[in-house]
Amino acid sequence: MNVAEITVTFSYLGALLIWTFINSRGLTVGLWANRAAHLATSQTPLIVALAGKNNIVTLLTGIGYEKLNVLHRASARSTLILIWVHAFGRWRLGLHGYASLDEVDVRFGVVSMAAFSLGVLLSVRPIRNMAYEAFLISHIILVAMYLIFGLFHVPEVKYRFWPALAIWALDRLLRVLRTIILNKLWIYIFPIGKRFDDATLERVSSDTVRLTVRRSFKWRSGQHAYILAPSIASLPFEAHPFTIASVYSEDNHKEGRSQEVVFIIRGRDGFTRRLLEASETRESVPIVIDGPYGAPPRLSHYSTSILIAGGSGVSYTLPLLLDLVRQVKSDNGVAQRVLFVWVVRSPSHIDWIDKLLQQAVQDCPPTMQLSVKIYVTQRSLPELPHKNAVIGDTTPIEEKKSLAELSTASLASSRKARVLSGRPDISMILKEELSCASGRVSIDVSGPSALADATRDALVACNEAQPAAVLRGLPRTTLHIE
């Protein structure tokens, strides 16, 4: 957990504990034990609502479900504490009479508590990242057990459990309907209209594939979608989120043409590993898309944008860059300067987005200063003229050939693009950019957690990004970590 999540969790828990013990007549056990149970069950609909992809909170506030997930975890952890406070109180009063373990409703309560406790325990980040598919299945089963057995434990407060079940069912129904409409799945039953072609698989490096599919839905740069690939998935209805690496075209939409939706997917384990292996023998694969989701920042009102990505995180920052270039070119944006930083492990990874990055560099209007810096961290690199070699017309032809693995000739011909060896000094980069920025500044980061932490720490240590800096006339800075 990061500092923000810890702060939210303890604040949430503190408020609930105050409500639990305040005015409990000298901490009378029976009062605070029952009150803890009532507060815990009252949180149940909220916990389920905050976990849904389609929820009323996102609809009203515009905050993406992935951001609301912080509140989901905070409320769930706080509720777990309240459940155990209730159990401890009942134990203090004595497990006899109507509270005896021989009573069926008490046993239901124990099972409900055990299911909820295990669900929270298995959702901690290390376990979740280690086996996400197992986590997802167990999470659904354990939450269902908590709701059902909790309903039998205290049927008199069923009005707190049924809404949670209804919210979950509504979210699933909306996702199913959205998926059917976006992918024209009715065609497989009723042959009305033309079905979409399968997604194309292209191996762009030893561990990465580019998946391209055509669909007719609208999305914003930086949003993501869930991919279902029945022929590759190991479980029924297995879906995984990936950021859309392409930009939505309004012209195609007006002309009724489908859009090219691109995903850059790094093969690690599980589904992504199977997808990578499939690209060795197959050029296409049938997929189903559910989305788009997410509420990425709107950069059209920022004078300076700093886009920082690591590895496949570029699938988030690249569409933002392409969108900014298009907005400024059509006089719909105010961006004056954009810095695009990308950290990759191998020179071959540049091929993932070479054509799209070349397009951004070529289309960049003269009113916008664009600087592209690609850092290659692999030690065994072709020999560079010097540490910070600029890829441009001033580089001799012989040296350009030695850099062929670092960038294609088309990208290398631009003075706006630089390829550097080693890791970026995030602190220095931000300090330089913020010291000369004018107007509002947006910093958007996507990639490994180490890169996000480095950016966050650099901002904390940077005088130009402190809250008091605004009083000194320096621009306001906003950080967004995907």
Automatic annotation (TrEMBL):
Key words, A-Z: Cell membrane, Electron transport, Glycoprotein, Ion transport, Membrane, Oxidoreductase, Transmembrane, Transmembrane helix, Transport
One Gene Ontology biological process: intracellular iron ion homeostasis
Keyword Transmembrane: yes
Main subcellular location of this protein, as a coarse class: membrane
UniProt KW Cell membrane keyword: yes
UniProt-listed InterPro entries: FAD-bd_8 (IPR013112), FAD-bd_FR_type (IPR017927), Fe3_Rdtase_TM_dom (IPR013130), Fe_red_NAD-bd_6 (IPR013121), Ferric/Cupric_Reductase (IPR051410), FNR_nucleotide-bd (IPR039261), Riboflavin_synthase-like_b-brl (IPR017938)
Domain of life according to the entry: Eukaryota
PROSITE patterns named among the record's database cross-references: FAD_FR
One Pfam family cited in the UniProt record for this chain: NAD_binding_6
Entry GO terms, CC: plasma membrane
Transmembrane segments: 6-22, 106-124, 131-153
Topology versus the membrane: Multi-pass membrane protein
GO MF annotation list: ferric-chelate reductase (NADPH) activity
Catalysed reaction, written as an equation: 2 a Fe(II)-siderophore + NADP(+) + H(+) = 2 a Fe(III)-siderophore + NADPH
Subcellular location: Cell membrane
SUPFAM superfamilies in alphabetical order: Ferredoxin reductase-like, C-terminal NADP-linked domain, Riboflavin synthase domain-like
EC number: 1.16.1.9
Domain FAD-binding FR-type: 191-299
Similarity field: Belongs to the ferric reductase (FRE) family.
Descriptive protein name: ferric-chelate reductase (NADPH)
Organism field: Rhizoctonia solani
